[in-house]
Specification:
191 residues, alpha+beta, Alpha-Beta Plaits, three-stranded mixed β-sheet, three-stranded antiparallel β-sheet, globular, 4Fe4S_Fe_S_CS
Length: 191
């Protein structure tokens, strides 16, 4: 079994409520690292232009580069298929940060360790969804078994022109792409 996320990019309005909820749960400063990220892109060329918001976190990959390269075993695959982080084993070397093609592990300067999305493991064990799922006002984010998510969303994809190729690490992420998210010409934009 592999667990992961599905995000409907056509429903994501870029409000960043999921990002704020994640920061709040982990007590991360506003200007600090983003374990759940919403980035905006403008794409295409006039007159065929579009914009979209890419909503992502750790993709809990099948072959995670962070786990393969962590010298202490602080990054590891859990029995449920998620990639977890042992804060006690972390030495802050940032090898995982430099290894991940999705920029998921984030160095927490004040703690001198790395943190990442843990799919709100403690909340899930208590019967709740991850905070990003529960906080999304548009209900654009789902979390669950990847086979079930693929069956429920057959048009969703695991890579976009603005992301790493899925074959690199086998990410457990599905995006319901918008027209803009599928365009080859894209630039990040700050809103």
């Amino acid at each position: 079994m592999s667990l992961g996320f599905y995000v409907d990019l056509s429903s994501c309005i870029g409000c960043r409520t999921c990002q704020v909820a994640c920061k709040d749960r982990r007590d991360i400063q506003v200007a600090g690292p983003r374990l759940r990220r919403v980035d905006s892109f403008e794409c295409g060329t006039y007159p065929d232009v579009a914009m979209f918001h890419l909503n992502t976190s750790c993709n809990h990959c099948e072959s995670p580069a962070c786990v393969a390269n962590c010298p202490t075993g602080a990054m590891y695959k859990d029995d449920d298929g998620t990639v977890q982080h042992d804060d006690e084993a972390c030495i802050g070397c940032q090898t995982c940060v430099n290894s991940c093609p999705y920029s998921a592990p984030q160095f927490i300067e004040e703690d001198k360790i790395v943190q990442k999305c843990d799919t709100c493991r403690a909340l899930r064990e208590a019967g709740h969804d991850p905070v990003c799922v529960e906080a999304c006002p548009m209900r654009a984010i789902e979390f669950g078994d990847m086979d079930e998510l693929r069956a429920a969303h057959p048009n969703a994809v695991s890579e976009l022109p603005c992301t790493e190729a899925a074959a690199t690490t086998g990410p457990n992420i599905l995006w319901e792409p918008t027209r803009g998210a599928q365009m080859e010409a894209f630039e990040p934009v700050t809103l």
